[in-house]
Every structure is written in C-alpha cells, then in structure tokens.
Fold this sequence. Notes:
The structure holds two protein chains of two kinds. Chain A is mainly alpha-helical. Chain A has 32 helices and ten strands.
Amino acid sequence: MRREPVVVSAVVLTAWSLAVAWSAPAAPAGQTGAAPADPRAIEFFEKRVRPVLVEQCVTCHGSKLVKGGLRLDSRALLMKGGESGAAIVPGNADGSRLVQAIRYNQDHLKMPPQGKLKPQQIEDLETWVKTGAVWPEIGTAAANSASGAPKPGPNNAPHWAFLPVRSPAVPRVKHTSWVKSPIDAFVLARLEAKGLKPAPPADRRTLLRRATFDLIGLPPTPEEMDAFLRDTSPQAFSRVVDRLLESPAYGERWGRHWLDVSRYADSNGLDENTAFANAFRYRDWVVRSLNEDKPYDQFIREQVAGDLLPRPAEDRAYWDRLTATGFLVLGPKVLAEPDKQKMMMDIVDEQIDVTSKAFLGLTLSCARCHDHKFDPLSQKEYYAFAGIFKSTRTMQSLATVARAYERPAATAEAMSVRQEYDRKLNELREQVKKAVGKEKQQLQQRMKEMDQKVPDVPMVLAVEEAKEIGDVKVHIRGNHLTLGDVAPRVFPKVLGASHQPIGPDRSGRLELANWLAQPTNPLTGRVMVNRIWQHHFGQGIVRSPDNFGRLGEKPTHPELLDWLATRFVAPADLSAGGCGWSLKKLHRMMMLTNTYQMSSAYDAGSALADPDNSLYWRANRRRLEIEAIRDGMLSVAGALDPKMGGSLLDTPNFGYVTNDQSRNQAQYDVPRRSIYLPVIRNAVFDVFQVYDFVEPSFGNGKRAVTTVAPQALFMLNGNFVQDQAAAFAKRVLASSAADAERVDHAYLRAFGRSAAPDEIRSAVEYIGTVKARHSASESDAAKLELRAWRNFCQVLFASNEFIYVH
Amino acid sequence: MSTNCNRFLPVFNRRDLLRSSANGFGMLALANLLQGEASAAGKAKAEGPLAERPPQYAARAKRVIFLFMHGGPSQVDTFDPKPLLTRDSGKPFPGEKPRVQFAQTGNLLKSPWEFKKYGQSGTEVSDLFPHVGRHVDDMCVIRSIHANNSAHGGALLQLHTGSDTFVRPSIGSWVNYGLGTENQNLPGFITICPTLGHGGVQNWSSAFLPGDYQGTPIGNASIRAREAKLKFIQNDEMDSLDQLSQLDYLKRMNERHLKPLAPDPLLEARINSFELAYRMQSAAPAVMDISGESAATLKMYGVGEEPTDNFGRQCLLARRFAESGVRFIQCTHSYKWDQHGNLREGHTKNAREVDQPIAALLTDLKERGLLEDTLVWWGGEFGRTPTAQGNDGRDHNPHAFSMWLAGGGVKPGITYGATDDYGYYAMENKVHMHDLHATILHLLGMHHEKLTYRYAGRDFRLTDVAGRIVEDIVA
C-alpha cells in the first residue's frame, strides 16, 4: 500500500477532491485486481460519480437502452465506448469523450441532452477520470456477474457479513481461570492482547438486579434478593436465570425488543391515522412465541409466510400463523394517496425495508431508485423482492381511505354464525329506520340484546397470496412511470442464494421465508445473536444492529459473533452445544459467563486504552428503557397489574385515532405493563416520547439514549410519578413503625440494597424537614406523614441509581 | 431582552428560602439554581447536541416563524390575481388537467374577491387580506410554488419534511440539528397548537435525527391557544419549596451515588438535567405569559377579541419565542382552508381570523428590529383549482400555489414566479417545495446538500436528491 488508509468522512473527501494532490494517474484500480484502489477514491466514486452516471446517463446508455452503442454502467464498457470510440481515457480528462460531452462546449457533443450538469458534477467527473477512473469491481457488477462470487483483493474483498459464517476455534488465553465459557475466552483473548484485565465480578445484589431487569424488565423483589443471597451453591445464578426465563414476564420484556424491530403500532400513522384495532393480536403472538421459546427460524417463517406453511392440525396453531403475518401488514401507509400505482409500490417498499432490516440487517430499500451505492445489491434484486410482495395481498382495497387486510382467526362455522348475526342485525336496523313510537323502541331493544349476543370473531391483520401474481419491472429512478427490464423473483446472489425461479402460481413468500430461515444464510443468525448480545451487554458486537452492510459498523469481535451464530443455528442435540435456534438457550449461553457477570467499576488505565469499552473490560452501565422505568415504578409501588395481553385501545377498528380536532383517545393511565399501552403513531404517549421510545414507523433495533430536560420535568411533575411515589410511600409506611427501617425498606425495593447509616440519617432528616415545614398548615398527622414520604419516594424514583442498571 | 426576570420567580421569597436552607438544604446547590433562574428568560447557552453552532456560511436569518394555513388556501383568491379566469369564468379549462386528481372539477370559477395594488411595490393582494396587504413592501410573494401530493396528509408531510412517502425529519428539526439553540432554557423548535391529523407528530418529528431535535408542541389544534401549555411544565400537587428541597436532596443522593463510580459523563449529565429542567420550568411559562404586554399590543394582535383571539395569541407567542431565542416556531391555523364548497364564506371567515394577527406580527417584529433576522413564512400545504367544485368551491391543487416570505434576508417588495393564465399550473420560475426548503436553509446559512445525517446506511437530507436555491429572491 502506498497510502495510509484514512477514515472516510465527508470532510476528508472534500479536501481530497479539491486538492487533487492525489497525484499521478493511478493504475486502473479495481479493474484487474492488481493495484488496490484507494478507499478514498472508491468512496469518491460511489458518492460523487456513480450517482451522476446512474441518474443522468444510464437511462439511455445502460442495459435497457444503448444509444450510440454506448453503455456507461461499468468501467470496461466506458473504456470500450460506443460508435464514436472510447468514452474515457483514464488519466486524461481532456481526451475523454465523456468529459468533452458534459462540458457542453462542442455543438455536436452535448450530454446529457436534457441539460448541462451542475458545475460541481462536471468537476467531479473530470477529477474522477483524471485520477484514473476508479470503479470498484465489487458491488453490482459482482452481484450480476455469472459466477456471483465477489472477487478477492484487499480493497474489494467481499464484505465480511456476506461470507458464510465460520466456526472459529476458541482462542487460547493466559488467565484460563477466568474462562467460564468459550465466550469468556474470546473476550479475554482480546483484552490480553491489549494488556487489559477484566473487571472483578459484580457483587451479587448488582448482578441479580442486572439479570432481572435484563430478562423480565422489572426489579427483583426483596424476597427474590434474599433467596439469591442465601443460595450459596455454585448453581445459584444459573437457577436465577432459569427462573427468569420461565417467567411470563420474559416474553413481555423481550417481546418489546422485537416490537421495536418490527415497527409495531396500533395505528397507521402517516397521513390518515386510523386504528389497527387488531394489531394487539400480533403483539400477543410475539409475547407468546418468546415465552414458548419458539425456535427463531420458525418465528421468521411464521411472520413472513405463516399463511403458506403446511396447515397444522390444530386451528389455533393455524390462526397463530396467520396472526404472525401481521408483521408484513403493520407498516405505516399513505392511505389517501391519490396515485394508486405509487401507493402499491410504497407499501411494497415498506415491506422490503422492514423485512431486510429485521432479519438480514440490510438496507435493501436503498436500491429502490438505483443500484445500492455501498452494498452489492442491484436495483434488479430490489425489484425481485418487490415482485414477491406485490404478489401478496396486504390491503383490503386501495380506495381512499385505504384499509389494511384482515383475515378471520376463527372456524368457518363461527364465521357463518357471525355473518348470520350481522345479516339479522342489518335487517333490524332497516326496520328501526322505518318504525315509529313504541314499535321503534321495542325493535331497538331487540337490536341491543342481539348485539350483545354477537359472537366475537377475532380478525387479524394478515396477508394472503394476491390474485395477480408475477414479476415486476425495474422502476427506473424508482419511478413507476418509467419502467425497465423485468426482474425475476430471486434472492440476492451475494448472499449465496441459489436460483430456483419462482413459479407463476405463487408469490414466492414461502421461498423467501425458507431462505431467510436457512442455517446457511450468512446474515440471519449473525443479526439475531447480535441483537440479543446488545440487550445483555449494552452494545452489539456490531454496533449498527440493523445495518450489517458496508456502511454499518464492523464487528468488534468477529470470531465471537461467528461462534455465537454457529451455535445459535446448530441443532440442539449437537454435543457441541447447539441452540437449535432457541433464544432461551442463547440467553443462558451469554449470561452464564464471567463476561456478563463483571462489575461496571471504572478503571483509569483500561478507560485510557479503550474508552468506549469495545473490548468489554467492564460491564456497561445502562439507562433503563422507559418501559422498564415505568414498570419498575409500578412494581416497586406494588401497583403493577400483571394481566397479560389484550387491547387497551378504545377506537373502533379503522376509526381515526387522531385527527385535526380530536384528542388521542388512547388510555395510558392503567397500571398494566408498558408493552400493553397502545402505540399510536403520530401521537406516541408523551412520557415514552421524551424517554427515547422508538419511532414506531421504522423498524429499529437500537434506541437512542438521550438525557434531556423534559425527562427530568416528567420525573418532577408527572402525575404518574407522583401517584406511584404516593403508593410506594404507603407501602413503606406500612412496612415498619420506625423511620430508619422504613428508609431501609424503601432502598431495598427501589435499589435492591440496604441503606447505609449516613443515607438513613439524611433521609430521616429530609423527611423531618418536610414535615416541619408543613406542620402548621396540615393538622392531619397521617397526611403530613404521607406527604413527606411521598416526596422522599419520588426522589428515589428520580435518582440515577433507580434509572440505571450497573 | 426586556422580559422581566422577577415575574416568574417561584412563589416564595428569598428570605423564606434561606431560612429553610438552614434546615439542611445545600446552600450552594440552591444558589446555583437561583442564579440559573435569574438568567432563565435571557438566552442561556446550551451544551451537547443543542449547543449553538455557527452556520456553514453567513446567515441572513437566525430563526423562522412559519404561519401554516392548514387546508390549502386558494392562490387565485389571495395572492395570484388572474384576469383571464374572471373573463372566462364558467367556461371549461382549456388546458389539460393533471393525471392524478383528488376529485373531478367542473369549469373555471372566477374569484369572488377583488384584487388591489398595495404599497410602493404595487403587489396585488385580494380583499381577503387588507391588513397583510399593507406589508407587501416587506414581502416576497412566490406565485409559482408547486409540490407533488394532492391529498392533505401527503401534502402536509411534504411541506414539513420534504417527503410525502416516508417518515422523515421535519424542517424545524433539521434547522435545530444544523444550528442548535440560542436558549437552552427553551425548546429550540416549538409548534403552537399543531394539528394531530394529516401526519400529526410526523410534521414536527425528528424521525431518525436524535430526539433532541424533536419539535415541542404547545397544545394542539383541538385546544384554544389561551389554554395551551407545555407538557409536565408545572406541578399540580407540590409547592415550589417542596420541589426545591426535592431537587436539593436528589442532587446530594446522586452525587453520593456517583462518587465511587466516577467519572461517568452520563450520570453527571443526568444530574445537570434536573437543574436545567427547573430553569425551563420557570422560563417557558414566563415567555408564554402575555400579561405584561401593553394594551395597545394586545389590541394590535386582536387578542381578547373575536375572531382574532386564537391566532392573535399564537402570533404574539411566536414573537415572544423569537425574541427569546427559539430557532423555529410554527403557528397553525388549523384545517380551515379546505373549501371544496362554501368558498366565499369559508375563506372570508378564515382570512378574518388571521389577517390582522399576521399584520400585527410583521409590524411588531419590524418595530423591534427582529424582522431583519427572522424569516416569516406564510402558506398552506397546497393551493386550489381555478376550476369549480359545485358552484362555490375549489379542489386541492399541488401544481400551483402562493406562499410568501418576509424578513430574514429575502428581497422585499417583490413577486416571484407565475402561473398559467388561469392559475392551475406553476409556469414561470417554478419553485418546488424542495427548492423552497433549500432556499430557507440557505437564508439560515446552510447549504441543503451539506446538511446531512447518516442513517440506515446513507446520508439523508431535507431535500432528498433534489432542491435548488432560488437565488433570485435572496436580498
């Protein structure tokens, strides 16, 4: 390498392209694989050159149209040129016909015909030719090449995430005594290489609080804490993990993580915010599936093609699978879009986006308008996916205001009974219209009675195969009015998909589901183990959980990631300890390690060497998500209603949840777990909004963690916090007659530890001060007491110790 | 800044406070809080993501006030006079109608209102806006705005976020992302009584930008401006002294907790956030308290009178927020301009509600020297068809509509662009919504192609892959 690789950023790029100090014409890098291209040059090409060529030139000079015999969609074709000769001479801008044409100063040679390019674009193309016309061979060219195998080479090496998952050997380490599991070996090897030491183990109270919040999203009760401290056997922690994984609250905690990824919501959002009154059934399916430890491959198949899997014997199981396909229907859609063709393709795009991000960590929807600029995904491959989803029925109709498709989760018999009721009710309704006086009243009464008897036939948001099935054409620049070649429904070659053309009788969703859920898919396993890791360790091994592409983060521990992915997808009976896609086994694997059980203690030396703890020299201290904060308060206050499932949305199905003059009618003032509160797009619960809840219109596997004043305002002034503080205070007051013991009890519940003597002293003093201040105005001693303790309990809720797990 | 500092001091005096402090409050912490408070209504510098940042190049405007006319006011009845439309009223539209229409319309319908020339510039304005008309010499009326979506929802989203298809950050969020805030004690992006329909929160959402840049709503369209307030800004159950003592106790508890764990910038930031919250709690209600405004000012805005009270209050609040350093302020005149029928009565009523308040805002900003660096932007999500729906209505028309800008570095006293003879399509010097966004960012000192944010593998911007700065209207 002649040049040092540099971090590519917009700043560097600009400086580079302006200076063109990047001297003599480089060898045609990327062309032969002989000379590696400067990554800056590739980035420059991808950012400044390829978009111009794609947008301005290849419509007429590409695979579809070959005007003048010239194609501008690969370097080789540019060199070959058209009827008038080569389009570029690398290194010689003035001598390149392409450059002459875009300069627009020769009458017979002005391109593009629709108008001169912007000065910056012309300059960029000149720079690009001058500096050797670097054009990386990977990318589209590779994806479309006959072999499909990306070519080797230092800079155009295939991207790590698209290569098959390897099963790396467990590394050797010096301090073998620290290694409780292969995971520890992978982590320790990297630490030792840097001369770092892992932090000491967390104390048992901290560990139990961490594990309990991690797995069920609630704090440990004093009884649970006590039991764990008393269990001195080596299996104590393992037993805790088992107990927590068996708790139904586990599905509520981890179900919410998946709902972030699957952009779950109870309303459409976007332009017409109508209710998805049956969406909760998908949410409950997620919770149930996780509690049952449904293998992840099956979890995928049901969501993508539950309706197409072999029908199970039990109706209930079949309905569950229909419910799962709600995943494809839940997206936000422009329901009053006047242009129905556009609407159809927008819906398809949303499905491609959520599916590719959730399961593959790929931003495939970047390829809607042009070949993916950074990953080897062609526009044609995007439209191959589009054909699958366009052949899938997602909507009842596209007429304004459009409605999402629903299917009954009930027997045909139940359906016909229901339809009979509906028919009779309609008849009655007509009669009521005509009737008068007493007769009208009687009829209305009958209608009311019958209405109550109508059996509930649950409907679920679901898909089915569309009536019209087929491939779609490439939409040039993403525009449905300019169509290109037909894109047969196949899966990306770069991910090792083999080519089985999908027949004209089927959408291809089942094939897609099976391909996603294959153990050999290089992304599926990696992406999911990374999601789980992130929630246990505070950061993913890949820190961009939804983007494993070239612009995503690189893994901090690639071997560990592959080791985990290998184990995750391997059959469970394998002696090597496969999980058989079981998430619960994966949790155990990650938690029963010294890596997980480290303390979060600071160490100046390690912090200097690895400031963002990417090598895991300590546990990451983590701010709880708002659900865990809210549920934690309810739990500590003794107010949590443990009822599972069901809907808290009052709006009728497809009715407006919000519109201009209406307030959001969703009820949030219920002591249920947060996962059951309605998620209203365009009007997310304000408490959730200030605390970094996901934007429920996008699938998103990583929440922001901000610390802003409105969060503090909620803690200080929110009625919810004050109400829970009052309930907590009552509990604390009832626990003992002695103030010191009360303080201790409050600390045990809120923080999982006893209060230190100085803490008890200052708490008692604080409470005394509050009481003293109000003693003149408040004659009721009990009320005075409660007020002081409520103020105190609210401070505990607002404290850092409550909001963070350590 | 003339806002009185003492008006929003909590309801206790310093002597009480010091006496209680003797009972165990941390003197220093309280002193700090009070000191913060004293400057609360002044502009307090922010740190972190909202820290004030210099523009990319010299800015003409420091802030924006957007007066949003939800529903789609008719261009041919307000700022775009069309003599041929009057002449040919009742005849079919001679041109081709758009491929996608929201609804079918009939023949041409002339404007029921007369247009008059105003000011030195002689810009024509219809009789719907006599007050605003007097300000034409400060305004740049753009008659050739066009956009893509003919349904309210899509059009609102494109107007606010640039995209009528996907969830994208709002322009106010982009502006805050680019420039930060001038006053950390107030939100940097405020939207007063916004609509919850047609995109709702998406219209002031930061989408994938960090949550710090989210717009802060004050009330919503179903609430009168006089009742609108910020969420969680006041405590219904506790007096200030109780709260101060809580804050002090919390701070001590958090510092004790931090000691063995330090350094931890996140824990420290959270400790500070409570003090900031306390200052915000004082500052925001103070700015929103208009009781100190003179009778003449209130009268000018039409506050306390109908039909102007509601929008008058919004405009007055907008001035007060602008003065206090809020970067992007939106007022919404909600979903009233959608006259598919009842055009005469509807547009008359709507214009009466907003005309005087808007004129008052322009007068007020100018008198205070704020118009120079405040960009005032007026308009709806689309225009209306020159052809009739029924005999007294017009349909949605994204292909041509008028907006105007004033102050903040735009050329005053001009009109820009033109529509066809009947006002159906923008024809001359067309300004797409992306172009307008690019121009607004430009006036704020930011190039729309360089204000980018990397999300899900690519760099996003407000103008997506389009947008052109309309240099002709920049002063």
